[in-house]
Amino acid sequence: MLDVCLLGSGGMMPLPYRWLTALMTRFNGSSLLIDCGEGTQIAIKEKGWSFKPIDVICFTHFHGDHISGLPGLLLTMGNADRREPLTLIGPKGLERVVNALRVIAPELPFPIIFREIEGAEQTFALNGYRLKAFRVNHNVVCYGYTMEIDRAGKFDVERARAQGIEQKYWSILQKGETVETAEGRLTPDMVLGPARKGIKLTYTTDTRPTNSIRENAKGADLFICEGMYGEKEKASKAVEYKHMTFYEAAQIAKDAQVKEMWLTHYSPSLTRPEEYMDEVRRIFPAAKAGKDRMSTELTFS
Ligand SMILES: [Zn+2]
Ligand SMILES: [Zn+2]
Predict the structure, then answer these.
(1) 207 pLDDT band (50/70/90 cuts)?
(2) Which entry of 55, 65, 221, 292 is annotated as an active-site residue?
(3) What pTM does this model have?
(4) What binding partners and quaternary form does the record give (predicted)?
(5) Rounded CA separation 59/243 (Å)
């Protein structure tokens, strides 16, 4: 099961009723954060989730509304006496940018591991899930992220018995591990059926529509996408500033055949995103206007 929370839904600046866009997930005792603008640590507090299990923080890009909250969060994690390493993932230049911000948070009791993304896409194997970064199209280098949790095939008791595999090895094989016995090696494929559908979450913000988003969000259980503008007359602004309108996001959701889409990263001038949602749902019915702390649990079907 994957817990997902859209901590904030604003773009550019935090507002009294809307924190900056950031996503937090919890899986198997480990938490991941994507983006950390000003106030993100307050948004985490408001949600009531713990800082402690955050072991990965990813950045889409280095605009202030996506990273300026990092030094404060690092200090909070340090004050909680964290000792375990923290992995940071982001575009090239990550270590330089973070170390510049860390002039005001120089002494931390935990090590930081930097993983700078190379090229158009890169996949990281993390704590029981895969995280793929893929290049999008903003006015600086920017990446979207897809998180996938695989699900192994069903254990086939008949096959295990037919091959005379002892019951004490079943649970090990079911976990996907190999067993060496006196009679030879036992592998999971000897007892597991074809892989079943896992969980897929895609998050992308600060970008024009791209094929990379359509491909990487394909069939996602949840697609969280920027929608900077709801007003039809701001379509040219979206092109100029390399953002998206609600309708462009909905078209991607439709093309990628995702199960559900949440909009986020609203322009500060956009006070009531709901007003535009009827029109958005005409393009893609399973669309929701993201709100701060909007949450869901994604489970294996
Ligand atoms: Zn932004
Ligand atoms: Zn930006």
Answers:
(1) very high
(2) 65
(3) 0.93
(4) Homodimer.
(5) 17
